[in-house]
Amino acid sequence: MFKELKEREKLARQQLIVEVAEKLFHKEGYDSVTIRRVAETIDVSPGTIYTYFKSKEELIVCVLIHNMKLLEEEITKSLKINDPIKALMAIADDYKAYYSRFGRYVNVMDLLTTDENGYALVSKELRNGLGAVVERILEGIAERMNRDNASRKLLKGIPPKRVTAAMWAVAHGISYIALPLSTQPDRGWFDFDQVLPDVIHLLLTDTTAKPK
């Protein structure tokens, strides 16, 4: 009983640290926030934070996993839309919301990969946890794109997993470029709210059809 209580207290403290860190990342930017800054906000010592997270990178991954799970929930809803183009448009909206909220602060792939010497910024356990969420999202999209003839027609003979990987890369790359520039009125090339739907229309729809 006592052991279970201590475990619940530990999980509650971890969750508090993650929630506070996420708010600080939003408000002050990822690069500006330090472990000491998080500790001061919660009114604990930096050592207490390090009891739960070995580094700032591990803390950011836990925040990222939380946000990726929220993205997964929204995409799962969008995948139920019958029309494949409308489903992809909804997924684009889901990704835009995620990227605006959190994705722009950190590159998922930087945290999932290791360098040529096998060094990684975060533990294998956390990398696996983050990778599992990304994998589920991609698998869900790939399955949706292979569900019926209307969806498979959009693939143009390319395997669903390859199309999904390309779409994910394009969505992240476009978001990375478009979001900062869309806030500058003197540069009218990038409309963050419209650029992903435009790309989906260009790549996957009948070129003779007019965009809605």
From TrEMBL:
Q: Name the DNA-binding stretches.
A: 34-53
PANTHER family for this protein = HTH-TYPE TRANSCRIPTIONAL REGULATOR PKSA, HTH-TYPE TRANSCRIPTIONAL REGULATOR RUTR
Q: Where is the signal peptide?
A: none
Q: Which GO terms describe its molecular function?
A: DNA-binding transcription factor activity; transcription cis-regulatory region binding
Residue ranges annotated for the HTH tetR-type domain, each copy included: 11-71
Q: Which organism is it from?
A: Desulfosudis oleivorans (strain DSM 6200 / JCM 39069 / Hxd3)
Question: What UniProt keywords apply to this chain's record, in alphabetical order?
Answer: DNA-binding
Q: What is this protein called?
A: Transcriptional regulator, TetR family
